[in-house]
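Researcher: Here's the sequence for the chain we discussed earlier.
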Amino acid sequence: MQHLHINNGTRVPHVSLLRRGIQGRFGLLTAMAAILVMSGCRQDMHNQPKMIPQRGSDFFADHRGARPQIVNTVARGQLQSDTYFYTGVVQGASGYREEKDQLPFPATMEVLERGQERFNVYCTPCHSRVGNGLGEIVQRGYKPAANLNDQVRRSQPISHYFYVMTHGYGAMPDYAEQLTPEDRWAVAAYIRALQLSQAATQADVPSGAQVRDLKDLAAEAGHADYAQPWSLPASTAVQALPHVNSEGNPGNAPANANPPKIVIPATKTAPAAAK
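Model: Thanks. This is the structure I predict for it:
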């Protein structure tokens, strides 16, 4: 044992040894205290009176831990009392659902601006900015989209666009996750405004307003070819299916038609393993 000699000749333990002894005793006391505390704990924190999914329970008479929903209750935020607002259809006199040419709220300028913004984000890749069905991905081989400016689409009620955005149609997927009901109605309102703009005539221009040709404006901006007629590049079409003329121009290929047969060359037989 190491010792430290002081002036009177008394030998005492070294300071480091004293420190080690004190730490050892403290650790022993701490461990004993922890054991005493743990031995005094009850099991209430371990066996809590709680419901565990898919387990029974003695608390209820039917011994089921999972409780059925209370009749006539609605979860917070899911009260959809205005069925037309959330579905875009009403029950007609015949008992079948019917669409209406009516918005559930006024078509203010804020609504149209919101619809334009959402339309440009989600609809233009297929339908283009002017709604003629020749969006960028269609020009690169995707199935032709509906021309929103033809006679068929212009005659459809405004809630039809809401219903299609909610459930999809043909090759078009639904956009219920991307667009809220409010935004779907705003896009539908903007589609109607877009149709009016594409079919406008000189008589629709207010008196005194100046009208300029789009081609002249495009030429001044350095885009002389922008206002020219758009054509569909048939050489990049993914499905060489005949168009259905009744569905507008450009006509859509049948939604559920059999795709063209694709011939895949047979794989060559693998050479035999060398012996």
